[in-house]
User: Which sequence fits this backbone?
């Protein structure tokens, strides 16, 4: 996501985020009082500030109703086809009704959701809980709910439920549970769904409706409930105070998915992956049973100020433990910039190449002592110069964006001086504001490759696009990047005098353009050298997003003073591309990727349980054989903390960089 600093908007807060999954927002914290009467004010604000949409239309009204129903019923199970059609028509009247302070239709819909979940729970109990239940390995399922649609009648819904139950039971059996235990777990899952439906609050409904409406304006506008806004800011700052674990939810348990390196839990070794947290208590407080509690509420109980103690009841296999952890500041290092030096022997020459991984443009709120991505990158580039590296690989393949000004600063590290990006915004649509590299000198002027992917978005595309327009680096990756050429501004809302925290809205308020005048909107940045990738699919990118804004262009605005490096292009680029293509054609890793792409393209969208079970058995047998072989040949000493293996794309990008270094000489 691309967010500008507060330059034009008085209430705007410049924010940064990682790639956030779409969906309904979290419920508001106790004491938050978003009401039905607030909805018209929010919708009016969206229209007054949005870049393209300024008024309610039948299309927006109908899309909001349809998407809201889909968010309530993502598997297309709760409502039959004729019921869904009726509800969509009724929900289309919500805008008019909420303008009069009437949300009764939303509240009535909640009761229908509860009733349908209860109905499904009873059916699953009778079918899957039967003593004579038998797994049907011939079951087949249309994987995409949009393709299978809502069931036409009750018989069709029950047939779909039977198929889903077989797939779900098979998943539990894969975890080596007995059939009886698998049945018990599955019934509990459906009981939890009914309970979660009953726990939907008025604020949940209002927040979900506002968020759904915002996303009909474009894919990147949204409403943040107070809790979700807090998580947004934590992600932005790359730090939080807590115990340092990533939690997931499974069958009513909050499960430790990952222990974050450097956090309090990592240092104390108190928790392990797959531990189940069953209770939470403050230092001298009574424990709170958190089994079957919503994950967001468990996280809220565990999170706390640095230096305070939290006690956790933990289920580890058959063992029950009590652990105490002192909360501390967590630095989310895995998202910060990192560098490694690669030694390569190519054509009889020794090369030292710097591989700089930059997964996120972080920081940018202006807080004293805040960690800033450009500052970290500056330090790493200075280290690279000190190491006298022959070439630099800047890896943006997992970078989903960040703050606009930081992207401009970082681009300036590689240009003497030049225009980097232009922005058109809602304040003055006829005026184009050009952002120029603020640095007079080049921090690094040697051979350079930028690795991108279909995930690289927004600020990443600004950097990669400028590098390409100025012929500063070779762009390597998927056919093109994500294709997000819009700017978002976040407006927090907190009425302190009334004690109301209404969260925030994120609005698309501008478009940005490359120095060539082209927009990355929908198009992305095309790679100079394309590598096979599983992300190179129409399912990834702005083009796959509903309600995406159209692409535009403006006259070029490249800076004449940019320079101080050897431009890349022409015959040099063609020769590098030829060498890469020859390597990729013979590389077994890329051949495996091509095979997976072919399998995906041939996929008919139907899951066949028998095939899945057979594949799992084959994979498990192969893993057991591999483990046995490794046990026989394992070294006596095992090293901890080994770096992850580079991807085939990262390896080939380094080879391309080596070619660029040698051919440039």
Assistant:
């Amino acid at each position: 996501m691309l967010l500008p600093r507060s330059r034009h908007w008085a209430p705007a807060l410049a924010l940064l985020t990682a790639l956030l999954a779409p969906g309904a927002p979290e419920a508001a914290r106790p004491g938050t009082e978003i009401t039905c009467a607030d909805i018209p004010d929010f919708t009016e604000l969206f229209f007054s500030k949005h870049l393209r949409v300024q008024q309610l239309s039948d299309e927006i009204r109908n899309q909001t109703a349809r998407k809201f129903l889909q968010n309530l019923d993502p598997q297309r199970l709760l409502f039959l086809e004729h019921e869904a059609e009726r509800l969509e028509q009724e929900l289309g009247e919500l805008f008019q009704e909420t303008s009069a302070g009437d949300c009764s239709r939303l509240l009535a819909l909640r009761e229908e959701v509860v009733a349908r979940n209860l109905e499904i729970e009873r059916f699953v109990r009778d079918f899957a809980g039967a003593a004579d239940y038998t797994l049907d390995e011939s079951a087949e399922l249309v994987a995409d709910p949009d393709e299978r649609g809502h069931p036409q009648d009750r018989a069709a819904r029950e047939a779909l439920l039977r198929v889903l139950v077989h797939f779900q039971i098979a998943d539990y059996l894969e975890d080596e549970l007995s059939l009886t235990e698998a049945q018990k777990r599955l019934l509990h899952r459906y009981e939890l769904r009914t309970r979660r439906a009953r726990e939907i609050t008025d604020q949940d409904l209002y927040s979900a409706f506002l968020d759904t409406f915002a996303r009909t304006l474009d894919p990147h506008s949204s409403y943040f409930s107070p809790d979700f806004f807090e998580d947004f800011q934590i992600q932005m700052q790359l730090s939080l105070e807590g115990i340092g674990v990533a939690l997931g939810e499974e069958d009513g348990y909050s499960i430790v998915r990952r222990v974050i390196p450097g956090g309090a839990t990592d240092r104390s070794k108190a928790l392990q992956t797959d531990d189940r947290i069953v209770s939470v208590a403050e230092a001298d407080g009574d424990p709170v049973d958190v089994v079957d509690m919503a994950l967001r509420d468990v996280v809220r109980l565990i999170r706390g100020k640095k230096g305070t103690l939290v006690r956790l009841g933990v289920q580890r296999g058959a063992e029950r433990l009590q652990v105490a952890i002192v909360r501390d500041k967590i630095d989310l290092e895995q998202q910060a910039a990192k560098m490694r030096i690669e030694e390569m022997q190519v054509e009889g020459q020794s090369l030292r190449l710097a591989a700089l991984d930059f997964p996120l443009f972080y920081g940018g709120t202006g807080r004293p002592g805040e960690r800033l991505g450009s500052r970290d990158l500056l330090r790493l580039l200075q280290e690279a110069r000190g190491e006298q590296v022959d070439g630099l690989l800047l890896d943006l393949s997992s970078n989903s964006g960040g703050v606009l000004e930081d992207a401009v600063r970082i681009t300036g590290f590689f240009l003497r001086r030049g225009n980097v990006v232009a922005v058109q915004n809602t304040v003055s649509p006829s005026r184009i504001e050009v952002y120029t590299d603020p640095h007079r000198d080049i921090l690094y002027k040697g051979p350079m490759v930028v690795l991108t992917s279909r995930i690289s978005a927004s600020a990443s595309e600004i950097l990669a696009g400028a590098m390409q327009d100025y012929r500063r680096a070779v762009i390597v990756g998927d056919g093109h990047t994500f294709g997000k050429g819009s700017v978002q501004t976040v407006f927090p809302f907190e009425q302190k005098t009334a004690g109301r925290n209404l969260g925030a809205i994120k609005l698309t308020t501008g478009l940005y353009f490359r120095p060539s005048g082209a927009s990355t909107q929908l198009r992305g940045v095309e790679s100079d050298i394309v590598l096979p990738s599983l992300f190179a699919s129409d399912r990834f990118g702005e083009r796959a997003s509903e309600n995406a804004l159209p692409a535009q262009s403006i006259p070029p605005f490249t800076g004449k003073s940019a320079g101080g490096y050897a431009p890349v292009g022409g015959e040099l680029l063609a020769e590098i591309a030829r060498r890469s293509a020859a390597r990729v054609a013979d590389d077994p890793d890329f051949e495996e990727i091509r095979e997976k792409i072919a399998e995906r393209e041939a996929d008919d969208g139907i899951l066949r349980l028998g095939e899945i079970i057979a594949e799992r058995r084959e994979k498990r047998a192969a893993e057991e054989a591999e483990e046995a072989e490794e046990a026989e040949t394992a070294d006596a000493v095992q090293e901890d903390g080994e770096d992850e293996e580079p991807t085939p794309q990262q390896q080939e990008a380094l080879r391309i960089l080596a070619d660029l270094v040698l051919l440039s000489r």
Observations:
- Residues 385 and 444 are 7 Å apart (CA to CA).
- The mean pLDDT is 84.
- The longest helix spans residues 104-128.
